[in-house]
Amino acid sequence: MKGRTKRAWWLAMALAIPAAAQAQIDLTTLDREMTGPRTQVLVLGTMHLSQMPDTFKPASLDPLLDRLAAYGPQIITIEAISGEGCDLAARHPTVYGPDFCADTDAAKAATGMEVPAAIAEANKTLAAWPAQPTPAQRRRLAALFLAANDRTSAYVQWLQLPEAERRAGDGLDAALVAMLEKLATKNNENYQIAARLAARLGLQRVHAVDDHTGDNIQIADTEAKAFGQAISQAWKSGRAELDRAEAQEKTLSESRDLLPLYRFLNRPDNLRIRADVNAGAAMRAESPQHYPQIWVAGWEIRNLRMVANIHQTFRERPGARVLSVVGASHKPWFDSWLGQMQGVEIVDAERVLR
């Protein structure tokens, strides 16, 4: 072997060996002998309640809330974009579009604060939050959360006010009071499950962890129609099992007690069906431009960033009990990736909902 060729061969081997060895490291075992308690994470796969039938009543969630309250989460996360995320999108409308999040104009008019200032003030307020807050303190914090584009946390504060104290004052004007009152009528799991549960448990907020910065796929306008058609066609090819499952979900969603629906949604066999339709069918689909595979890449980036955001909520609280309320399609990814993190144990949703 000539000198230059030989050196190149040895260099290639030297580079390849560490890469191969690195691939063999099982990071999930590093916490086997950890000290201290493990963080417990329960991922609740949910229907989007906006899709529930007209007969839906929030009281039908009470048995579910009872089970979740018994688990006793100390941190609750939701599938919503944070105030920081909304502020980022607002500053880059050519990237994310002009209507990425709801506006905060009414809250800004009432408090005089832009989103970043409101976030900072809300965090400062929570850092010095008393054990027994006054109604005035709750109203002010609700106003700050609204200005910070965190409506669900504002509603958590609103729910913990006595009925007679749910009024304007301390930063809440008539427009913001009307906004909070309207949230009670919204068929949305963030309000009807996460916020109600947080208020019941005496938590001060929930944590928005959604992130669309990674699935904002850059497709030319001329390709958008073809892209959508390719994804739809891929999903159709794997829907037979999912159609049967969704028919059962529809029947269960019409009940006065939605606990059986949530048991059904969180069964591993049903989660496997959703995962295969979402990603498996897309990865098997043929497309000259590889559109379905591009969509899966965006889906996984979104889930990775959401999982990282969840981890951040308990970074300084090892051993905490965490509840993540998220669309059922995300649950397999959340369970898998959160379960690989050091010091984290995934809680069996079937056991909690039993």
Walk me through the structure:
This protein has helices spanning 3-23, 62-71, 83-91, 93-96, 105-111, 115-127, 135-147, 151-159, 174-183, 189-201, 221-236, 240-253, 259-265, 268-284, 291-313, 331-338, 349-352, and strands spanning 39-46, 75-81, 207-210, 321-327, 344-346. It is an alpha/beta fold. It has 2 domains: 35-82 and 214-354, no CATH class; 83-149 and 151-204, no CATH class. It has a 5-stranded parallel sheet with strand order 3-2-4-1-5, with helices on both faces. The longest helix is centred in the C-terminal third of the chain and has 23 residues, at 291-313. Residues 1-23 form the signal peptide. InterPro entries: DUF5694 (IPR043749).
**In whole angstroms, how far apart are the ends?**
68 Å
User: What is the assembly state of the chains in this entry?
Assistant: single chain
- Our Rg estimate from Cα atoms comes to 23 Å
Total domain modules: 2
Weakly predicted, low-confidence segments: none
Give the amount of beta strand, in percent. Answer: 5-15%
In N-to-C order, the SSE pattern is HEHEHHHHHHHHEHHHHHEHEH
Give the overall average pLDDT: 93
> Roughly how much helix do the residues carry, as a percent range?
55-70%
Number of strands: 5
* Structural category: alpha/beta
Number of helices: 17
Query: Largest sheet at a glance?
Result: 5 strands, parallel
Q: Give, in spatial order, the strands making up the sheet with the most strands.
A: 3-2-4-1-5
- The 3D shape can be described as globular
Protein name: DUF5694 domain-containing protein
Keywords: Signal
Pfam families: DUF5694
Signal peptide: 1-23
